[in-house]
């Protein structure tokens, strides 16, 4: 059972070396931060690697860091790591200018919505989830997915249709409600 804690208490406990609290933080933030990194990098594996490295660096520096906002620290660290990674890539342009990426962290409502979307994706049947992630996160075309998974393109199309229908049914009322 997860016990609600304030950010200050989480920072204090992690600074003392509480691995359980650190793991809770990692589990609760990983998906959101990975999606945030993916927006910059368009590469799921690289985004996940960046987030993992940010958490490793945080753990290594936990005693020296004096944080006002843990969420801001993690989001900024991921953003900066993504920008550094993009600078290492050939043909780097100003990412913010080119793609209109978010300068600041997401609002609480956006974070909640992203979390709900990721949760809904994880609750899909395994094959549907795999197909959806390959299409939407990894950027594969339906034909490529079919080839990689050894299934027909029609199966990929059907599974994507079901995945998108599920997400639409789940989130259209939620989005409409937030606009009111």
Automatic annotation (TrEMBL):
UniProt xrefs under InterPro entries: RNA_pol_sigma-70-like, RNA_pol_sigma-70_dom, RNA_pol_sigma70_bacteroid, RNA_pol_sigma70_r2, RNA_pol_sigma70_r4_t2, RNA_pol_sigma_r2, RNA_pol_sigma_r3/r4-like, WH-like_DNA-bd_sf
Its keywords, alphabetically, are: Sigma factor, Transcription, Transcription regulation
Q: Which residues form a coiled coil?
A: none
What are the RNA polymerase sigma factor 70 region 4 type domain coordinates in residue numbering? 116-167
Q: Which Pfam families match?
A: Sigma70_r2, Sigma70_r4_2
The UniProt entry, under SUPFAM superfamilies, shows: Sigma2 domain of RNA polymerase sigma factors (SSF88946), Sigma3 and sigma4 domains of RNA polymerase sigma factors (SSF88659)
Report the domain of life of the source organism.
Bacteria
Question: Do you know which Gene3D superfamilies this protein is assigned to?
Answer: 1.10.1740.10, Winged helix-like DNA-binding domain superfamily/Winged helix DNA-binding domain
A Gene Ontology molecular function term for this protein is:
sigma factor activity
The record's NCBIfam families line, in alphabetical order, gives: Sig70_bacteroi1, sigma70-ECF
This protein's name: RNA polymerase sigma-70 factor (ECF subfamily)
What is the taxonomic lineage of the source species?
Answer: Bacteria, Pseudomonadati, Bacteroidota, Bacteroidia, Marinilabiliales
């Amino acid at each position: 059972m997860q016990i609600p804690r304030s950010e200050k208490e989480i920072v204090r406990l992690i600074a003392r070396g509480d691995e359980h609290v650190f793991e809770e933080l990692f589990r609760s933030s990983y998906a959101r931060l990975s999606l945030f990194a993916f927006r910059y990098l368009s590469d799921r594996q690289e985004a996940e690697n960046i987030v993992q490295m940010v958490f490793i660096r945080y753990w290594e520096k936990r005693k020296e860091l004096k944080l006002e906002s843990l969420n801001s620290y993690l989001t900024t660290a991921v953003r900066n790591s993504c920008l550094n990674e993009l600078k290492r890539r050939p043909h780097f342009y100003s990412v913010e200018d080119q793609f209109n990426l978010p300068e600041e962290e997401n609002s609480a409502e956006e974070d909640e919505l992203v979390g709900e979307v990721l949760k809904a994706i994880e609750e899909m049947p395994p094959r549907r989830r795999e197909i959806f992630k390959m299409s939407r996160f990894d950027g594969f075309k339906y034909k490529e997915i079919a080839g990689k998974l050894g299934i027909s393109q029609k199966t990929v199309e059907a599974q994507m249709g079901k995945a998108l229908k599920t997400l639409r049914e789940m989130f259209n009322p939620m989005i409409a409600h937030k606009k009111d």
